[in-house]
Design goal:
Strand order of the largest sheet: 14-17-18-13-12-20-21
Structural class: alpha/beta
Keywords: Oxidoreductase
InterPro entries: Ald_DH/histidinol_DH, Ald_DH_C, Ald_DH_CS_CYS, Ald_DH_N, Aldehyde_DH_dom
Organism: Rubrivivax gelatinosus
Protein name: Aldehyde dehydrogenase PuuC
Number of helices: 15
Shape: globular
Length: about 500
């Protein structure tokens, strides 16, 4: 028998929010006693008070993480033992799926259907995958002469600071936590002040699963306070950051001002979606609309720059505009909703500002372009499609982080590649062509971390995620993520003759 569909509004009304930090295995208030109010972008309601972490709170969390690492309560466990605890952590995430999904939706506005079907399962799958991977990584023996033995071993980095954004709070946290914890590090996580609630709950679940106190700590707060203190801390050995390119630059500055800690930035994007006349135009239009308007367009890899051959551009733009009504924003707590709320008023104003800039620059708005559902007290924007966009326009060059798609025209393959690569970013791209030779040529020519061919945004934990140029460095996901959170040690032994 199928269980009844939850009444999400009733559950939201009954939900008790605990906004205290989690340090050394316990929920605690901030040293100053300060908090900030967290409101939901769905309707502006106050969800509760959250700890406003500052340097003193970060110091306490880092000291706890350092003590846990130095006494090897976690790093000293056999990989198989760490695996079992992380597997229980993943199981605990799935057991709490309804609560976590509701927190995620209330916190940052995404539809409950996707919090349940995408975010929670992906978070658990990431933790479980790295749990399974950790006892299958082998070290190396270098091919030295017979009179030496050179061992190359992978060791945990130490204390990892993880700073994650508000658009996929659980998934982005898991991409850092999975490899960092599996490798034996201790972690201090600073979630975005716009979406801190699931991070705090994840830490509780981890402790309940058997993760030793101090190994995973969460300090919520503002970026310029808690985030800066974490990035500057001399006892933090590495920072895993996902966020804007502007703040990514600061992370590198903080490293230089402190202990030259490793910094791994996963930053912005302005992904190009190239459609050639010999591609499946109808399916390309459906795919770009689905990908662009998913998560309210608040995705670093959103295909917001659609480059279409001039012979089919008008038809393609009209097709996408005709699809826009499917994605009209609605109540995120309704299981039928496919597009929810923008995360807060600041981001709403940013998105509307870009729409105004597009109109002022002469682009043609074929669909959307307005705020929606203002009467609810929440922050919603219609799915917006611009045609007649040129490279010089801000909407073609800058990351918007909202449901705004731009159609640009190209004359030939060479121009398409040049336009795609002209961006400061290089996170993802897509090529649509039934000519296998063209598809391979263009894919190889594009400067992006992931190039999709005749699809977009298909994904798996086994493949790396990251970008070229100002989209960052290092890779999340896959076995390559272990490179960010481990050191390679060479142990050289001289073998004396008999």
């Amino acid at each position: 028998m199928n269980s009844p569909t939850p009444n999400w509004r009733e559950r939201a009304a009954a939900l008790a929010i605990d906004g205290r930090a989690l340090v050394d295995g316990e929920r605690i208030a901030s040293a100053s006693g300060e908090t900030f109010d967290k409101h939901s972008p769905i309707d502006g309601r106050r969800l509760g008070a959250v700890v406003r972490g500052r340097a003193e709170d970060v110091n306490r969390a880092v000291a706890s993480a350092r003590a846990a690492f130095d006494d090897r309560r976690w790093a000293g466990k056999a990989p198989a033992a760490r695996k079992k605890i992380l597997q229980r952590f993943a199981e605990g995430i799935l057991a709490a799926k309804d609560e976590l999904a509701l927190l995620e939706t209330l916190d940052m506005g995404k539809p409950i259907r996707y919090s349940l079907a995408v975010d929670v399962p992906a978070t658990a799958r990431c933790i479980a995958w790295y749990a399974e991977a950790v006892d299958k990584l082998y070290d190396e023996v270098a091919p030295t002469a017979d009179n030496a033995l050179a061992l190359i071993t992978r060791e945990p980095m130490g204390v990892v600071g993880a700073i994650v954004p508000w658009n996929y709070p659980m998934i982005m946290a898991a991409w850092k936590l999975g490899p960092a914890l599996a490798a034996g590090n201790s972690v201090v996580l600073k979630p975005s002040e716009k979406s801190p609630l699931t991070a705090l709950r994840l830490a509780e679940i981890a402790v309940a699963a058997g993760l030793p106190p101090g190994v995973f700590n969460v300090v919520p707060g503002y970026g310029g306070e808690a985030g800066e203190a974490l990035a500057l801390h001399p006892e933090v050995d590495a920072i895993g950051f996902t966020g804007s390119t502007r703040i990514g630059r600061r992370m590198l500055e903080y490293s230089g001002r402190s202990n030259l800690k490793r910094v791994y930035n996963e930053l912005g994007g302005k992904s190009a979606f190239l459609v050639f006349p010999d591609g499946d135009v109808e399916r390309a239009a459906e795919t770009v609309a689905d990908s662009m308007f998913f998560n309210q367009g608040e995705s670093c890899n959103a295909p917001s720059r659609v480059l279409v051959h001039e012979s089919i551009a008008a038809d393609f733009a009209a097709r996408v505009a005709a699809l826009a009504p499917r994605y009209q924003p609605a109540d995120p707590l309704d299981p039928g909703t496919v597009m929810g709320a923008i995360v807060d008023e600041t981001q709403l104003d940013t998105v509307l500002g870009y729409i105004a800039a597009g109109l002022a620059d002469g682009a043609s708005c074929l669909a959307g372009g307005r705020r929606a559902r203002a009467e609810t007290g929440g922050y919603y924007v219609e799915p917006t499609v611009f045609d007649g966009v040129t490279d010089s326009m801000r909407i073609a060059r800058e990351e918007i982080f909202g449901p705004v798609l731009s159609v640009l025209r190209f004359a030939d393959e060479a121009q398409a590649v040049a336009m795609a690569n002209a961006s400061a970013y290089g996170l993802q791209a897509s090529v649509w062509s039934d000519n296998v030779h063209r598809a391979h040529r263009v894919a190889r020519a594009l400067r992006a971390g992931t190039v999709h061919v005749n699809q977009y945004d298909e994904d798996d934990i086994t493949v790396p995620f990251g970008g070229y140029k100002q989209s960052g460095n290092g890779r999340d996901k896959s076995l390559h993520a272990f490179d960010k959170y481990t050191e390679l040690k060479t142990t050289w032994l001289r073998i004396n003759p008999a």
